Amino acid sequence: MSDILLKRDGAVLEIRFNRPAKKNAITNEMYGVMADAIEAAENDAEVRAILFTAEGDFFSAGNDLMDFAAQSSGAFSGPRHVGRFLETMLHAQKPIVAAVAGNGVGVGTTMLLHCDLVYIAEAAKLTTPFIDLGLVPENASSMTIVDRLGHARAFAMLGLGEPLFGRDAAAFGLANAALPAAEVEPKARAAAQALAKKPAEALRLTKGLMRDRETLLAQLRHEGEIFAERLKSPEAAAAFAAFLGRK
Ligand code: COA
Questions:
Q1: Backbone phi and psi for residue 126, each to the nearest 5 degrees, phi listed first
Q2: Residue whose CA is closest, atom 41 of ligand 1?
Q3: Is the CB of 129 inside a 6 Å radius of any atom of ligand 1?
Q4: Ligand 1 centre distance from Cα of residue 199 (Å)
Q5: What CA–CA distance (Å, rounded) separates 38 from 82?
Q6: Which residues does 17 contact at the CB level (< 8 Å), separation at least 6?
Q7: In which order are the strands placed within the sheet that holds 177-179?
Q8: CA gap 36, 21 in Å, rounded
Q9: Whose alpha carbon is nearest atom 21 of ligand 1?
Q10: Does 23 contact ligand 1 (Cβ within 6 A)?
Q11: pLDDT > 90 in the chain, percent
């Protein structure tokens, strides 16, 4: 069974994290599958909306730390797909909805800032532990989280590593609604289906007007350069080793 499940439900493309035993941590291969799927959806007139959802009790534990450790030590070779995934999401013209029934960590949180509608479980925790990993924020989150939450709350998340609970995410404007976990996916699916019935061109233009893609892309790439250096830092290497050796 693939770690990413792709399904068409009418005019909605559903992208489902399917690696629950690893809390849906995202590997290089998974990024590649998702980037390909979004690129194909963007070029397919029959797809009118994209829905992210997840199997199991976690939305996503973020980037796979084994992959980070391999990239940190230089053991990784071959194309890295994460950048393509992030930029494909940033540029997506079709509306993206997220069903977040469980916790999000790292990119499992920052990707939500590039979704157009987010439905989240009241008790879900969103965290961005980049500093504890010796890293810096990615995916333009040093800008998007500040824009959404204001500097004080954003710094509690990014600086202290404090979690943002689903109910606060909705109250502070990072999510549309906080719901009991079982209601999250049906609500998100209904919203994606409703978007898929809207006049597609008007929706595309409206999404474009609401997003300053150029500024977001510049921030994402600037963060990406620093992030790539930090991956090789002694602080990051020590954090990855601590996680991998903790059991
Ligand atoms: N990368 C790789 N494997 C991960 C992972 C990640 N990001 N997150 C969880 N896993 C794996 C664990 O190693 C474990 O695998 P194992 O059963 O083979 O030992 C399995 O998923 C379950 O995780 P576990 O830690 O036992 O569950 P938990 O409920 O106690 O804790 C987390 C869940 C997500 C809080 C914890 O696993 C964690 O902190 N993960 C790292 C998150 C992270 O830093 N992501 C990168 C952000 S940039």
A1: -110, 125
A2: 61
A3: yes
A4: 41
A5: 13
A6: 3, 4, 24, 26, 30, 52, 53, 54, 55, 59, 60
A7: 4-9, 12-17, 49-54, 96-100, 117-121, 177-179
A8: 24
A9: 22
A10: yes
A11: 98
């797809």: which residue's tokens? 47
pLDDT by residue (tens digit) across 171-202? 999 999 999 999 999 999 999 999 999 999 99
Pocket-testing residue among 23, 29, 127, 141, ligand 1, by greatest number of atoms within 8 A of Cβ: 23
Predicted pLDDT of residue 77: 87
Can you read off the two tokens belonging to residue 103? Answer: 């916790």
Q: Would you say residue 247 has pLDDT above 80?
A: no
Tell me, what amino acid is at 64? D
The reply to whether ligand 1 has any atom less than 6 angstroms from the CB of 65 is: yes
- Give residue 1's pLDDT: 82
* 25 C-beta closer than 6 A to ligand 1: yes
Q: Are 12 and 47 in contact (CB under 8 A)?
A: yes
Measured by CA distance, the residue closest to atom 39 of ligand 1 is 61
Residue 37 is encoded by which pair of tokens?
């799927």
Domains belonging to the chain, first-starting first, are 4-201 (3.90.226.10)
Which tokens sit at 63? 């980037």
**Whose Cα sits closest to atom 47 in ligand 1?**
106
38 touches 206 (CB < 8 A): no
Q: Are 23 and 125 in contact (CB under 8 A)?
A: no
Closest residue by Cα to atom 20, ligand 1, is 22
Ligand 1: which residue has its CA nearest to atom 35?
Answer: 61
Whole-model pTM: value is 0.98
